[in-house]
Amino acid sequence: MTRVRGARWAGAAAGRGGGTGVLAEVHELRKVYNGTTAVDGVSFGIKKGEIFGLLGPNGAGKTTTIRMMATTLPMTSGDVIIAGHSVHEDPAAVRRHIGVCPQELALYQELSALDNLVFFGLMQGLSRGQARARAMENLELVGLADRARHRVSRFSGGMKRRVNLAIALMSRPDLLFLDEPTVGIDPQSRNHIFTTIEELRDQGMTVLYTTHYMEEADRLCRRVAIMDAGRIVALDTPTNLKARLGDPEKVTLEDVFLQLTGRRLRDEG
Amino acid sequence: METRARRRSGSSGIGVRPLALAGKELKTFFTDIQMLFFSLGLPLVLLVLMVASFGGQEQFRATAYVVNLDRGPVGTELLARLENVPGLTVELLDEATAARRLDHSQILSAIVIPPSFTEDVSSGRTPELIVRRRGTGGDEGQIVASYAIGIAREVTGEHLVASEVARALAAMGSPVARDTVDARVTSLLAESRVNPPVVVEEKAVGARIDPVSVYLPGLVTMFTLFALTLSSVAIVEERKKGTLERLMTTRLTRGEMLAGLWLGALGRGLFQILFLFTLAGSIFRLFTLVSLARTLAFAFVAVLSVAGMGLAIAAIARTGEQANWISVFLTMVMTVVGGSFFDMSGARGILAIITRLTYNFWANDGLRRLIVRGGLLSSPAIIKDLAVLAVFGAISWLVALVFFRIRGDAR
User: Fold this and answer.
1) Structural domains in chain B plus CATH codes
2) What is the rounded average pLDDT of the residues B259-286?
């Protein structure tokens, strides 16, 4: 299996984050858009080295929460502390510790995979040489080293998703936000992304993971928070959540999810 | 260790990031074949087409439609001399065809040499030349008629002179034969045509206006403006797909992002003007090295002023389609009203005010002063152009700074 060269991820090794083993703390986070409350007093903590799942139906407020945590969306109230820095007070310091893999394919289709990664590396403050070396490491990690110089526009959906992930790793973040990274791709690419995330976890990276696929969350996440209508309705390990409904061996996380959020159809709004 | 290294490289990244962003923008530009053709190829093609259509025809060119009913030598001589007029083509028609084409407005005038033309000249009668025309006969018809009448007078005059000289000699009882008289008179008249008693010299007032040098500034300003305003579509699309927001999770600041996008647009605009002026200049031999340098220096300021326009449009537009329409509308209005292809300096009233509110007016004015009139950058008129362009640039920047958004949706 491909491994990233070098030491374990800096955040885990450096031991930052308030000294309680918590890398990110979300306190009473609220976001109101034009009178509509998208996120309503959400609080949770993410421990160092864990994959934390944020689940919820469409419009539950997952992406809004991630955007506020990633400093790109101003919060109405509350705060987020990442690696000891307040998103509200010092977003620039927070950005030094995070990597974001957005739900959209936020990359440049007309450039090669390598050029995309090098460009984002430069934006992260790396020198050209550093960016290039790290880009090759990341492309190897996501299984695209042999396609490094190919234009992204010629890639399949799954390959583009992997480039999207590789870009987020350019800064060697302490906390990685993965917003539905496997949506709309083939099983092989999906499996490759799982393997990559597990490898990152094994190396000590902390991940905030959102998905609609419950089996993904069950497989990857140590703990999950289920959101609905801007609130967290449950937060525990997948096993404990399943135990609420019965035998964890027989109950699925999807059963728990539907039990908590209901069977009513949801649309993005 | 890693954290320290990262902090070090982060602090050294200030200034590098906008350049890297600008570099990425340029790379994208140079890999987009359609955009390259639109920005560089199309203006050249249009320039060549416009010059071919409207430029370069200084010599008079016309067709004389002649119905020659005379079979004698004087009519033939008249036709031969008409054919010798530079730029004039003689097309012989029969009487019915000429009448029909005049009726159908296919031609506007026809010259008819009557059957008795030679006979009238030979017998000393006043010959008749008929000009049939539709209305005034048009400019071309009137000029052709003037030529025909002048030549007819010349030819008949020569024949009359020869006849009169022969008649006078005969009356005096001279033994000189008529052929000898005709030959001598013809030779004297030919000599007078070569060395006319009055020499007419035509001089054009002012420098010759080369259509290339008139159209080139208009085309360059139009396409530079178009390409740079259209860059707003790409920015809006980036915002929509989340690339700009993703950039904001890096160490790039909003100011650095705007600076990078602006530098990218500036680089594209500069390459465009350098390419177009240098290539068109060398093809049409417009510039000396010094005048090219002057023109490029002025164009540099013009591009500086308009480079922020794409950002300003991207700041205002919510969708790529909106950005596209704003770009097309702005470019078309500024091109037409700004006098890219027609001289708008004489516009009065409200039109004069609107004209002066366009980027193209000032850019075209300065470029034409430099290229057509050989002006200097230090001349007050060109300094005024530069100052107004700088104000345009400042306004674009202000709009971009105030209204530019990173996020693409309302949520």
Assistant:
1) 18-55+210-407 (no CATH), 62-194 (3.40.190)
2) 85
Could you tell me if B20 lies within 8 Å of chain A, comparing CB atoms? yes
**φ, ψ for residue B251, nearest 5 deg:** -90, 5
Contact of B24 with chain A, judged by CB distance below 8 Å, is answered with yes
A104 interfacial to chain B (CB closer than 8 Å): yes
A64 close to B (CB below 8 A) = yes
Q: Confirm whether the ipTM is greater than 0.90.
A: no
Cα B285 to Cα B276: distance, rounded to the nearest angstrom: 13
Summary mean pLDDT of chain B? 82
A2 — pLDDT class (breaks 50, 70, 90): very low
Q: Find which of A68, A103, A111, A122 to mutate to test the B interface (most B CBs within 10 Å of its CB).
A: A122
pLDDT at B375: 79
pLDDT at A13 over 80: no
For chain B, say whether A189 makes contact (Cβ under 8 Å). no
DSSP β-bridge partners for residue A232: A227
Handedness of CA B405, B407, B409, B411 (dihedral sign): negative
Contact A43, A211 (CB under 8 A): no
Which of A33, A105, A122 is opposite residue B241, by nearest beta carbon? Answer: A105
Going by C-alpha positions, the residue among A170, A94, A92, A168 that lies closest to residue A127 is A170
Ramachandran assignment for B245, one of left (phi > 0), alpha (psi -120 to 50 degrees), beta (any other): alpha
pLDDT at A48: 93
pLDDT one-digit tens code per residue, B204-224: 555 455 677 777 888 888 888
How far is the alpha carbon of A33 from chain B, nearest alpha carbon, in Å? 7
Question: How does residue B200 score in pLDDT terms, banded at 50, 70 and 90?
Answer: low
Chain B closest CA to A229's CA: distance in Å? 14
How far apart are alpha carbons B81 and B157 in whole angstroms?
14
Asked if A72 and B247 come within 8 Å (Cβ–Cβ), the reply is no
Q: What is the DSSP string of B74-137?
A: HHHHHHHHHHTSTTEEEEE--HHHHHHHHHTTS-SEEEEE-TTHHHHHHTTPPP--EEEESTT-
Q: Which of B287, B240, B218 is nearest to A105 (CA)?
A: B240
pTM: 0.69
Does residue B384 belong to the interface with chain A, where contact is any CB pair within 8 Å?
no
Please tell me the predicted confidence (pLDDT) of residue A45: 95
Interface of B with A in 222-261 (CB under 8 A): 241-243, 245-253
Nearest chain B residue (CA) to A118: B20
* Predicted local confidence at residue A266, as pLDDT: 61
